[in-house]
Amino acid sequence: MTTPAPSEPNPTPAPVEGQPAATPGHEHQFLQFWEKNSRTIYVVCAVILIAIIAKGGLDTYARYKNDQVGRDYAACSTSEKLKAFAAAHTGHQLAGAARLRLADEAYAAGNYTQAAADYQAAADALKASPFASRARIGIASAKLYAGQTADAEAAFKLIANDASLLKAARAEAAYQLASTAAAAGRNDEALKYLDQINTIEQSGFWAQRAIMLRMSLPAPAATTPAAPTINLQAKP
Fold first, then answer.
1. DSSP letter string, 34-55
2. Alpha-carbon gap, residue 81 to 136, rounded angstroms
3. Where are the domains of the chain?
4. How do residues 183-219 score in pLDDT, each as one tens digit?
């Protein structure tokens, strides 16, 4: 006896003559799509999930490392520890802070060449920080006391004219320029920088010091008008 062929599950009903053929519904289309692509969808979902977990792990690790760096910085109680910390964390904001502390120590000790180098390293690491302005002021001041007057004045001018910096830093730079010019007897130049301070900020610490420095300068020499020329014509 011949075994009949197994019937197709869920057979599509044959169209009745005179009636339009039935089209599969959305559920049937979705089922066909799922049967063909389910494995790919599972793989994509797994990759996305792994990426989310990995990012969370990386963020947690980054926070842990940053907290650890903060603890290491807080433990820097000596100059040697600050140097070791700065060398171990080059490029980190706290490495810049360590360099700034070392620069201040060298400056206070009168080691202006070393101070200028440390201030420069601090400025490079603190570019996106408000402390970068203080580091740049430190560079110029250290060069000034190291006898590099021309380089110091050039650095102060860049700071005073940089509108992106803090007003207090710009005013301090202008004051240092005025003070240096006054000490060299260049009073007209000193007055120019004192006027610049007024344009930067009209109140504040450096504005007050500018007033005191202005008062100490000799008054500009009064210009004596030339006597009129009398032309006596001889009588005929």
1. HHHHHHHHHHHHHHHHHHHHHH
2. 24
3. 46-75, 77-146, 148-217
4. 999 999 999 999 999 999 988 899 999 999 999 998 7
